[in-house]
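Q: What does the predicted 3D structure of TlpA family protein disulfide reductase look like?
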Amino acid sequence: MSSAPKKILLVVLILVGAAAVYYSFFKPADEQIPAGEVVSAAPESSVYLTSLNDLDGNPVKMEEDKLIFLNVWATWCGPCNMEMPGIQKLYDKYKNDKKIAFYIISDEDAATVTPFIARKGYELPFYQFVGPYPPALDGNAIPRTYIIYKGKIIAQEVGASKWDRPEVIDLIDKQLAEI
């Protein structure tokens, strides 16, 4: 391949990469989470995970009386890793609020997840989930994130997002004020 086609290919790849990053982190306002709009009004039992364990293997029950921030991710997932610093900032903002619970969920085993989060320095509540996801939370794409209250999905996003942005904080603050 001569030099000109290589340069053209490189430019195209750079543009595609830039578009992917832009779309992941800087979506136009009309594509972002609609503040306060209920995405799904599924019955309570259909959005809560069973068979949930902490990274030490202890069973954990989701706190259904709290606002829930649930993120499904994997260590090998590039977009998941891109959004994790924003999730950490969001968690840091709300970690002492007793009305909200964070669940950062992976299907990977603790032997894979634990060294990864230690290396990255994340201090998030990581959990393992084994079993089929409830229909309202099922999907084959990651990352996927849900904000849930009283069995209703208040907001959801498939793909990487900037979770510490003002509209997400406003949505969470509004929901917490109503609890």
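A (community wiki): The structure tokens above were generated from the sequence. The chain has a mean pLDDT of 82. Residues 33-178 form a domain with the Glutaredoxin fold (CATH 3.40.30.10).
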